[in-house]
Amino acid sequence: MTLPVMHGATALQARDLFVQIGKQNLLHGVNVQLPAQQWTAIVGPNGAGKSTLLRALAGLHPRKGWQGQVELLGQPLAAWPVKDRARTLSWMGQNEAVSQELCSYDVVMLGRLPHQPWLAPPSAQDHTVVEACLHTTQAWDWRHRPLAELSGGERQRVLLARALAVQAQVLLMDEPLANLDPPHQSEWMDTVKGLVMHGHTVVSVLHELSIALQSDHMVVMQAGAVLHQGATHDVTTHAALETVFDRRIRIRQIEGMWMALPG
Amino acid sequence: MLLLAVTAGLVVLGVCVGSTGWESVWRMRSDPVAQQIVWDIRFPRTLGAWLAGALLGLAGAVAQGLFRNPLADPYLLGSASGAALGGAAAMVFSGTAAIGMEWMQRLGMTGMAFAGAAIAVLLTLTLAQGVQNSLRMLLAGVVVGVVLGAVRDMLELRYPDILQPMKAFGLGSTAFIGWAACLLMVGAWALSALAAWCLSRVLDGLTLGESTAASLGLPLAPMRAGLIAVMALATGTAVAQTGLIAFVGLAAPHLVRSMVNVGHARSTLLSSLMGGVVLLTADILARWVMAPEELPVGVLTALLGGTYLLWLMHRGHAARQGRG
Questions:
Q1: Which chain A residue is nearest to residue B210, measuring alpha carbons?
Q2: pLDDT band with cut points at 50, 70 and 90 for residue A133
């Protein structure tokens, strides 16, 4: 599915974003602009507020927990009709307690909920999409097995297929590489690049810096604020990255690829 | 389908078993006393046992889906202790005629038990500040349960006369179900089954976690409130008619899940049918094992349900180890 091209547009934007949970301020005054039809990586040390920012962009914080403005495709989140928003923005969380009894196929089918009328059975198109998504993440072989019987990495690929099945223009993923082995990490990267090529926008929180360095756009966070945002290949972005990790990493180009090296 | 067939069979069996034996059914046409026994006592009781079980099974399936916890049961939000307290209060007031207000007597034991269950659930929701947070709701339910239980204990100490009937209420019994109670339960069951069917999508979505369910555009807050209302209505009605019958609500959804793997729309209804079959079976056994005496049916459901659940757990565990 190819989406209308709109170069230079902004997919997601946050202005003066403050997020508070209990008495703790998790984000203070964050401003970000995430370009449409690009892959953005949000990086930073533990506790920098990466996941909090991603949740805020997805509109998942309770209303009294945050202040500021979040816009999806130029329209405030609250102004979106619920179902349209669910079709436009797909969410893949980290460590969410997923029921262990459902089989993989049914889990992925739940991604089609925003496309189905209330209580209607899945349409032929729903089945086609679910099948395609399971093939994309190479999870087709265990479509009939319940999640309880899958390994961490296999489960992760089923959940990725679930997020893809929404066919949303914007995909938000919180640490999608957790539990994936290196071949499947690069598989995930190819999937993301394919999505971007077809006009989707992907935003991911990543701890794997060498993967994150292959993204188009980068948001570097530290202590609940955004230290830097810009094109990933920019020298200033690399400098910011080295700063937030206390200069204990170096970013070098090896065989044409940017890599993060310990040191 | 199978469950429906089993139900029909059990109903016939239930009508046939009783203190005067099988002959009553054969002599029904000629003997008005036998007819009365079968039609006014056995039949409503059999039907009522099935209905109460169906209500508890439904409430159990909704509770387990809503709290995403296989140990959740219909009494989770304090409705059990609320109903018990309501029942105790009714007994105290009707026993001491001076305080026994007229409306209280008309409302009677079942009405008070239902009111108690409803008030307990409302209290739980107030303490939990709404339905947003599952964990807070569970904790509030526990607190309400303990506090209302303590109040009931105080009532029992103050008025020792009610100890015996309260014990019977706590064990649960289907002996006092008449036609009116059956009608009431049919109504409550139809209403809550319909509502649960309509809201089953939310339960499906919640299996992915609350954030993902929210991102899929499911309006969680109002639907959760609806599901809790279903739970409270089903549980309150069943508890008010039959007392605290243990384990049916917990075991029925597990039994269904061990047999089939379907979405919540169907598994909720199946759990309901299963609950009915389980409780009716237990009721027939309770009347039959020591006939003409009766076991309290709650004792039997706890024994049978508990044993079967343990066996299921053990089998599931062994199967997983075999595969791993």
A1: A96
A2: very high
Axis-axis angle for helices B264-289, B2-16 (nearest 10): 20
Q: Do A113 and B261 touch (CB under 8 A)?
A: no
Q: Are A121 and A90 in contact (CB under 8 A)?
A: no
Tens of pLDDT, residues B193-236: 888 888 888 888 888 888 888 888 888 888 888 888 888 888 88
Contacting residues of B for A174, CB less than 8 Å apart: none
- pLDDT-derived band at A212 (thresholds 50, 70, 90) equals very high
Residue B256's pLDDT is what? 82
**Crossing angle for the helix pair B134-158 and B102-127, to the nearest 10 degrees:** 150
Determine how many CB atoms are found less than 10 A away from the CB of residue A15.
Answer: 13
Residue-wise pLDDT for B81-136, tens only, equals 888 888 888 777 766 544 445 555 555 777 788 888 888 888 888 888 766 677 88
pLDDT at residue number A220: 94
Distance CA A114, CA A98 (A): 19
Q: In this complex, how many residue pairs, one in chain A and one in chain B, have their CB atoms less than 8 Å apart?
A: 73
The answer, for B220 touching chain A at a CB cutoff of 8 Å, is: no
Q: Is B178 helix (H, G, I), strand (E, B) or coil?
A: coil
Q: In terms of CA atoms, which chain A residue is nearest residue B262?
A: A102
Q: Does A96 touch chain B (CB under 8 A)?
A: yes
Least Cα distance to A114 among A85, A143, A142 occurs for A85
B160 part of contact set with chain A, CB < 8 Å = no
Q: Residue A150 gets which letter from DSSP?
A: S
When pLDDT is averaged across residues A127-141 and rounded to a whole number, the result is 91
A219 beta partners? A42, A229
**Which residues of chain A does B263 touch, with a Cβ-Cβ cutoff of 8 Å?**
106
Q: Is the CB of residue A180 less than 8 Å from the CB of residue A190? A: no
Residue B27 is predicted with a pLDDT of 54
Answer yes or no: do B217 and A107 touch at CB < 8 A. no
Closest residue of chain B to A113, computed from CA coordinates: B216
A172 to chain B: nearest residue by CA? B215
pLDDT at B173 over 80: no
How many degrees, rounded to 5, is the angle at CA B209 between CA B208 and CA B213?
Answer: 75
Grade residue B19 by pLDDT with cuts at 50, 70 and 90.
very low
Identify residue B31 by its one-letter amino acid code.
D
pLDDT of residue A214: 92
Q: Are B303 and B33 in contact (CB under 8 A)?
A: no
Vertex A95 angle, CA A93 and A97, to 5°: 100
Tell whether B261 lies on the interface with A, counting CB pairs under 8 A. Answer: yes
A119 touches B: beta carbon within 8 Å: yes
